[in-house]
């Protein structure tokens, strides 16, 4: 294993400004308050759990469902409304669990269906909703259907559930089209009888044929299976790729563009061969009938990497409730760019009758405590390949900016999606040795792209121990030696009921307590008289958010400071700082570090 660089201990953010609620311990036995409102999802804070990296109860180094259940009190105390579980289904982990061998069971390494039932029951007892991933674009190559298709041969009904085609060339030795996998290389793989199957992702993830009624019926069964077990909603993986133009002859793309919006650029909306086709919406209208049959109706959010105007289609009232807003995640740390993205995102959601979604990190991207510090134009992958050394990231400055970005996000109308560990201020683990990498991107691109393992390193819960409290043994990905400084224990405090003043964890707790009290309505009003580099908006429910993205301190407008992401100095907001205010009175004095 190569030498590792210890990340420095996380710098302490300021204590909450005067006026922050006292933070009494939550009543963990209280009923689920959101159950009174079927539209709970419109303004929810959803915490993404990547189960294999969250908590390990049995000591095998892999996170599991019982580990998640044991740590649910952390989420309740944090103040989120729901947890979203990334896949926990049987899988060989060719793509981190998104290669699903059985969509209606639990991977034995992660537990049982009884363990899942216990998790849901405990979550609901604590007032938390449960959202699960559903992966409809593809299955694992170990799925019984795909194994049947391999045995059945060309032209069989079993192969019609997937996308099999004869190859080109005199002996069929060439792929049917020039389509490329998102993970690199051809999107086609040949089987021993000479045919080829489509895999837009890893070769272990054959694409399903959604023109086949067996496929549609099976996913209806899957939706009901989990909804009957108490699931409150679904996150739909690769929601924009299900419908495909499979009419003969299949069309080449020419530029062989991989996934993402770049692949859509050369096609009129809705006409790309396999992304964001208009027919995909028939599928979600069918699903909506199932989701609405429950009381309260089950919710759903689409992972659809499409431009905003097209994204609105997935969130219409007769389809899925929401769609992830990746424009916000990808926006640079620039006031004008963020204002434009926020304005457009709110308009897009309003056009669909949905609420906006906001996210800064997830299991597929560099953690924002590191990403936001990369110079404009920096290629994330090049930075990862350098082990996080070129350019070097200022950890303290990155955490400061991450705090400001978080308070900005949580002030916006709509739903916020929080990725596990960001409440601890975790940076990206960019220097993982190549020999431990698990993401198929590394091998499939011929070691050109390092992949997503750096944001999936198991969480630190305690300051010491073989895996910093992740489990009684080691962890499936190595944690850096300095991870203990970020642990929940280090920020929560063994004796301090309200946590360690100034920690990232306490900033999140304070912000979420305030947000729950303040958040009403789904609109904002931009202030026009702000200095360059400053974002300021008023919420229609009577509070104000100010973010300073300029290089200089700025004076705050009159008002009571409820919370700030960094200390104020003589009423001024420092660079890379966000404050929440109630307008009408002079700014509060600078909060003391030990306030």
Task: Describe, in plain words, how this protein is organized in 3D.
The protein has about 600 residues and is of the alpha/beta class. The protein contains 15 helices and 18 strands. The chain has helices at about 65-70, 70-80, 115-125, 145-150, 215-230, 280-290, 310-315, 325-330, 335-350, 370, 380-385, 395-410, 440-445, 490, 505-520, and strands spanning about 45-50, 80-85, 130-135, 165, 190, 195-200, 235, 300, 320-325, 355-360, 415-420, 525, 535-540, 545-550, 555, 560-565, 570-575, 575-585. The strands form four sheets. An eight-stranded parallel β-sheet has the order 9-8-7-3-2-1-11-10. A five-stranded antiparallel β-sheet has the order 12-13-14-18-16. Strands 4-6-5 form a three-stranded antiparallel β-sheet, with no helix packed on it. A hairpin with a 4-residue loop joins strand 13 and strand 14 (about 545-550). The protein is globular. It starts with about 45 loop residues before the first strand and ends in a 12-residue tail after the last strand.
